[in-house]
Amino acid sequence: MPINLHRCAVTGVSEDPLGARVYPAPSRSSRTPFQRDRERIVWARAFRRLAGKTQVFTSRASDHFRSRLTHTIEVAQIARAAAAELGLNEDLSETLALVHDIGHPPFGHAGERALDQCLRRHGRSFDHNLHALRIVEHFEQRYAAHRGLNLTLGVREGIIKHSRDYKVEEHPELAEYLLDQRPPLEAQLIDLADEIAYLTADLDDGVESGLLEVGHICEHVDILARCYKAVQKQHAGVEDKFLFNEALQLMQNILTDDLIATTRQNTLEIGAESLADIRRYPHRLALFSPQVEAERLQEKRYLYDTLYTCEALENEHDKAEEVVTALFDHWINDPEELPPSHFDEVQNEGLARVVADYIAGMTDSFILLQYAEVKRAVRR
Ligand code: MG
Question: Does the global pTM surpass 0.85?
Fold first, then answer.
C-alpha cells in the first residue's frame, strides 16, 4: 500500500480556516464546505457558458472536439483521481479543477491575447485567474444577501494560485491569499492535471480535425511513439484508430502515474508532515519526474509548432482577434451601448475593465452575434 500524504492534506472541515466564507452560510446538510463549493460552481452561469467556449478549435467542424466545458470535466477527473491516490482532499481538487478555466474569454488563448492587448492600450491587463476570482466574487448573482458565490477561502486561494505565483508587491489586493506561501498540494495538482488533459485531448482532436497525423506525431513525440509501440505489440492486427486511442489512454496513465509518484516522492523527501510544511517550502512539490517533464515539453513544443500555430488555426485566431478588438473599441467609443447592468459599473471599475469583463463572459456564438449586429449597425 503506497504511503499517502493525508497529514499534508487540507482537512475540509468547517473549523478549518480554509473552509471559511466571507458571509455566513449556515450548514444545512452533511456536505463539507468544499462539496458545497463544487455545487455552487456547477450551478453557476459562468460554468454553463464554458460549453460555448473554444478549447482549441473555434469552428465546430466536428461535434467531437472538446469545448472548455468538456476539457474542464476531463481535468476534474484526473485531479480527483490523483488527489485520491495521494490521500489528499479530493473534493477540494475536484472543485478547483471545475473552476480552473471559468475566467477564460471566448475563442481560447487567441481571445485572451486580444483582450489583454486591448486592455494594455488603457494601462490595464487581462489575466484569466484574476478574472475567475471576479466572476465568483462579484458577477455571479444567486444569493439575496450578497453578490458572488461566497466560496471558501481554500477555493478562492486555489483559483488564484493553482497555476502561477503572484507577487505581494504587485497585488496588494490579494494579500488574504498568502501570496508568499505555496498553495496546498490539492491546488498544485490542478495545473498538471490540466497539462495531462490537454496533452492527451489535443492530439486526439488534432487527428480528428485532420491537421495532425498519427505517423507524424510518432516521429516527433517520443512519449506517444513509446505508447503506440507498446499497444501495437499488445493488440496485433487491430485497426490504427483503436491503436491510437489505446496509445492516448496509455500516455494519459503514464503522465498521471508519474505525477502521483513524483509528488509523493518530493513530499516525502522534504520530510513534510503537515500542510504548513507544504506552504513553507520554497518550491511547488507537485511535479513530473525529469524524464516525463522533458517528454512533456517535447510534446508541448510539437503541439505549438504543428497544431496551435498551423495556418488553419491561425486564420481562426486572426478572426478572433478582429472580433474581440472591434467590439472592445465599439463599447469604448460608445459606452451607452453596453447593457445597463454593465454600464452602471463603469463609475466603480473604469470603462476599459467593464468592457473587458463583458466580452470575457461571452461564449463564441454570442460574441459573433454581437459582432454581426455592430457591423450591420455601422453599414446602416
Ligand atoms: Mg485548462
Answer: yes
Q: How far is CA 263 from the centre of its chain?
A: 20
CA of 262 to the centre of ligand 1 (A): 21
pLDDT tens-digit readout, 58-108: 766 788 999 999 999 999 999 999 999 999 999 999 999 999 999 999 998
Alpha helix (H) ranges present in the chain?
33-42, 45-49, 68-86, 90-99, 108-120, 128-134, 153-161, 185-209, 214-220, 222-234, 240-269, 275-280, 290-302, 311-333, 340-343, 346-349, 351-360, 364-379
Question: What are the CA-CA distances from residue 35 to residues 29, 94, 121, 152 (Å)?
Answer: 11, 9, 41, 10
CA distances from 116 to 166, 176, 348 (A): 17, 25, 20
Across the chain, mean pLDDT equals 94
- Identify whether the C-beta of residue 93 lies closer than 8 Å to the C-beta of residue 345: no
Higher per-residue confidence, 15 vs 221: 221
State the cell numbers at 278: 507544504
Centroid of chain to Cα 313: 20
Q: Using the mean position of ligand 1's atoms as its centre, give its distance from the Cα of residue 100 in Å.
A: 6
> 376: CA distance to ligand 1 center in Å?
35
Residue 31 Cα to ligand 1 midpoint, Å, equals 27
**Which is nearest to 220 in space by CA: 305, 294, 299?**
299
CB 130 within 8 A of CB 103: yes
